[in-house]
Design goal:
By secondary structure, this protein is α+β, with helices and mostly antiparallel strands. The protein has one domain: Alpha/alpha barrel (Glycosyltransferase). It has ten helices and four strands. The protein has a four-stranded antiparallel β-sheet. The longest helix has 15 residues. It starts with 7 loop residues before the first strand and ends in a 13-residue tail after the last helix.
Amino acid sequence: MTGDGFVASTVSMRGAALPDRNGFVTALAVRALRLRRQPIPPAMLDALERCRSPTGGFRFWPVDARPDWAPLLPDDADDTAIMTLELFHAGRIAREEARRIACLTIGRHRVGSFGTRWSGWRRAGVFATWHRPGSGIDLVDCTVTTNVLALFATLDLWRLPGVREAVAMLADAVDWARRSGLRAQSLSPFYPEPAEFMLALRHAVTAGATALAPIYSAAARTGWGRDVDTGRDGHAVCSSPYGFAIWRSAELAVCRGYAPGPIGESER
């Protein structure tokens, strides 16, 4: 962990590897520590709070700490869902405030259509990844959707519009990708490896999203969904759409218990 509370990561793009500190990887580390019943350094929670944007949701980086090489990105469903949930569990956000964030940010941004493109397992009405005004078309990511459902289940928001469509979409997606690792990779444009989808599904079920239990079980029987915890200390955690920039984090692997080492030891 760096001095400002962010978990260190490395982003690879254009053949170069750059150090990075972002709220997303930090939030996954906080989740991992919580699930393992390990103490969470308060600085890590402070870091997540810094990622709250002026428009009410959360972003990958704090508004005042975006790297020079990174584009200006809007709030998004994934960061908002993961960070809101962890701050709620830590007592940094009250239940009613967490519900307000979920409804007024994630809940109000749903995909209107996919235009003339092949939609396949994708469904209109599911939650959009990006919180941009004025567009009903967006990339749909199954891991992002799963993280959203974990938040909604925890906050008793399961009856919100979009939840039913999201659950049905995840079931269709796993069925479509059942025998193909390449298909499984395509389910989550922002996650290069299906391992993160599996971890998200498992977490969502434990968070109370019981409707996802049969979906997780079906995925766990596939070649790409088995042994998700084996040898995952160096896998790609997330990416820009379809892998232009890819993030890895040895510190996250430590927090998840995949690699030995003390929490707080920065990457070199």
